[in-house]
User: What shape does this take?
Amino acid sequence: MLEIKNLHASVEGGREILKGVSLSVKPGEVHAIMGPNGSGKSTLAGILAGRPGYTITQGAVTYQGQDLLAMSPEDRARAGIFLAFQYPVEIPGVNNMYFLRMALNAIHRAKGEPELDAGQFLKTVRAKLKLLEIEDDLLQRAVNVGFSGGEKKRNEIFQMAMLEPRLAILDETDSGLDIDALRLVSNGINKLRAPDRSVVMITHYQRLLDYVAPDFVHVLSEGRIVRSGDKSLAAELEKTGYVGVGA
Amino acid sequence: MTDTAQALVGDGYKYGFVTDIESDTAPPGLNEDTVRFVSAQKGEPEWLLEWRLGAYRRWQKMTEPKWANVQFPPIDYQAASYYSAPKQKAGPKSLDEVDPELLKTYAKLGIPLHERAALAGVAVDAVFDSVSVATTFKDKLGELGIIFCSFGEAVREHGELVKQYLGSVVPQGDNFYSALNSAVFSDGSFVYVPPGVRCPMELSTYFRINAAKTGQFERTLVIADKGAYVSYLEGCTAPQRDENQLHAAVVELIALDDAQIKYSTVQNWYPGDAEGKGGIYNFVTKRGACRGARSKISWTQVETGSAITWKYPGCLLEGDDSVGEFYSVAVTNNRQQADTGTKMIHLGRNTRSTIISKGISAGKGQNTYRGLVRVQPKAANARNYTQCDSLLIGDRCGAHTVPYIEVRNPSATVEHEATTSKISEDQMFYCRSRGLSQEDALGLIVNGFCKEVLKELPMEFAVEAQKLLSVSLEGSVG
Amino acid sequence: MAVKTEAAPYLEAFRPDASEPAWLADARRKALAAFGERGFPTRREEAWRFTSLRPLADKSFKPGRGKLELKSAALPNGVWFASMARTLAERPEIARRAINESDLAGGQPFASLNAALFGDGFVFALDEGVTLDDPMEIVHSAAEGSINLRNLIVLAPNSRATVVETYRGKGAYWTNTVTSVSVGASASLTHVKVQDEGSEAIHFGMVRATLAPLAAYRNFGLTLGANLSRQDVQVAHGDGSNADVSGAYLQRGDQDTTTAVVIDHAAPNATTHELFKGVLDDRAHGAFLGTIRVREGAQKTDAKQTSRALLLGDRASVDTKPELEILADDVKCAHGAAVGDLDPAMLFYLRARGIGENEARRMLIEAFVLDAIEAVEQPELRNHLASLVHDWLEAGR
Assistant: This one.
């Protein structure tokens, strides 16, 4: 699914942030990438989704056999990559539903699947709302405009449900959420787990992992993965902190 | 720029074709004889000829306004032809008599003139070069006492109304271009809605410049009598030509007590090519008078075409409690220049006005909002709210905001806000990471930026306008 | 060369001073010729469309002389603070910077007139790295005639200072000041001007400020006096410089005042903040013209301009023209302008708590003006300005 090999990257014209990250994600796996602030977690997420402003100095990333780094952000999305943003962007004047329908149909077109008309689209929306057990109160508003932190994250998970990605990258999706919002969001993530869908969760805290059980846990520190293990590594982190695991 | 984007720019303007039709065209040049020729062609009464000649004499003493933020080489007013009409039998009684080439032209533009095929609920007056070629749904409107016809016909059939209102909002000598129009205007549309009547359908004029080396000088007069309501819209296209063509129209609106006029424009004259060659000079004077108490005039414009746009649709808020509105989207891409805005003149008590302007500059386009809000001493409790936002796409374009606020009454409240920002890379990336192409992402964000204005357009045209915005900006990112 | 009628008396009054350096005599001749050819500006000119020069045109002022006082605490080395006359005699190399090409070109006719006729003014120059906590104070009082003052403020890199100018007087006279300001790299200048001229006076003031990279310039103007007045502030930014140009104008009776600010962002990364408040009573007229110009390549400009006016008198009026000219895309620019009366809800709230209507109005007006004075950082200076505003309101009771 996703193969990251010795990835080095720096901020455009600035310092090196990733200093040789390697990671292999197979279909259906859930990986958690943990690490202290400034370890390069969000940079990794941004690079996988094609956020501008980074220079890859070394290494390669292949996704379903393709050179991921050569693809535009939209081509990545159409190929099934979904980034849940740490800070979802506000787009005044653009209706959430309209936005989603445009996105969904762009992905359908790319796959050679028929576009959804308004009726079919609405049906899908309802089904996904039901699946995630969430309200439809955000849908008629402008994209993320005036949303609370929890509403923005919920909107991201809803988009993920609608766009049905192959690889979901969740960037600090748990940050800034109270316990109720965290339950709602992690419930959504669990519902969307599937044998052919991989998830990379990026988080600073292990509390998300109490709700979404990962298959693998990696500790990122100073631009490198310093430890990898199973769920028990997260528990160890909980006890000893990042320093205790060598980060 | 990507190859796809490049390819899209190439065929950006879809209405650039020429209709091959025989025309009666006046020889180039402008003098009193030209004015007499135009008037004679239309079989006008003496008073109108005198009115035209009066305007011509004033025009001769006037000079082109220089204050606008637009640059163009001097116009040779003697080189253009001031009259061009497709050859057809005088005043076709029905569409069967209209030249099929013309019908084809309008069908190609998406404006079918056969009533059975027409857009539901829209009556159309089609103006081709200097004359109106067809007006639909006249009979149906006639049953309600609504007059909707070509200007020429109005002069013949409803001379008294025309005489009473012509020039009463935009006087002959108002400005250089309106004086020129008053001298040589050829045709246009006329609307009268009688007291208490709510016009049941959108009235629409579709303007088309076809002939080469001609200008278009149409005149539109809309009168809403006491308690009447009418929604009127106009669309404009022209063939793709290397020369610049002048379009100097005058629109006058009159709303009496409790009357409402909603006037919408989707302006898509040929903008010239990417290097700035060709395109229409759109120098237009539009003004409405809220003459009656509680009357309301609302201007909505989507300006995507023309090499140069110079227009300031305004409202004279004469009646107490009258309301003026101006909603505008202006796009300049490549080398287009727009200097546009509004004038809200508060004269009566408790008058209110709202101005929402969205300017989008891309390529090497220059976009200026120029507006005047004036509160006169007697306009107690006048209110104005203005919001002007500019969006910049690329670092070669310009956005300018020049509002004038003149307040002569202490009970007035005037608020003006303006912002300028570039298209947000974060927004673009967010959309693209959800699978939208750059072009679609841009279209989406721009349409969101313009939403407050687009929602003012009648439904059928809002969709068209959205597409037009995206098409106008094709090739501006990448 | 044709001389405009209204300019003729000023040309005739010109008396060359043989003791002056040649460069100055030459500049004066050129500037005078430029003014003569140009004459007074008219309302057809965009920059003057809201200013009626009738009170000036109706009179012909003979050359006059005011009283110029310079006050400061004991000054360390590296500071020059003296009259223009003394500076010309002792430090002509500094004085020379007070005149520039635009004085000779005639585009700003009253600046040209000033260059030709100025008799005195003040000069304040600070060497690199010198910082002063106490303000330099300049007080000018006048009684008759036309008085042209040429002022100069030069801050070398990394220096810091505060300058407070006050203009007062009694009688019918015309003060015309031109102040050149140069703020060096990373230097910081607070520049306050109080225009409290006599009620029959005419006052024109022009500031031309040039900011070096990372310079900070705070300009605050309080306009209270004169029958006719105009304040022009023109700022040219350097890379990453910061300008705060703010002010308040309070006018009553037949007073007429114009504030015209032009901020030129020719370099990137610079920030501008502008806040102007106007209070106009009786038949007074106020005008605010503000231009923010962002030139090609001036990326990362961040500029905000706000102008608000309160109309108190039935025949008071205001004209506002906030203008943005933007030719770079990576910028944040905004302006807001508002004209209105006091908020009735606030007025009612105060009155419902037992405060009389007049007192409530006075409180709200004071709060409205003090908002702009917040731009001045030094508390003592802010208090000084606030007390002047308070006095103005008391005088109107």
Observations:
- Chain B has a mean pLDDT of 86.
- DSSP finds twelve helices and 23 strands in chain B.
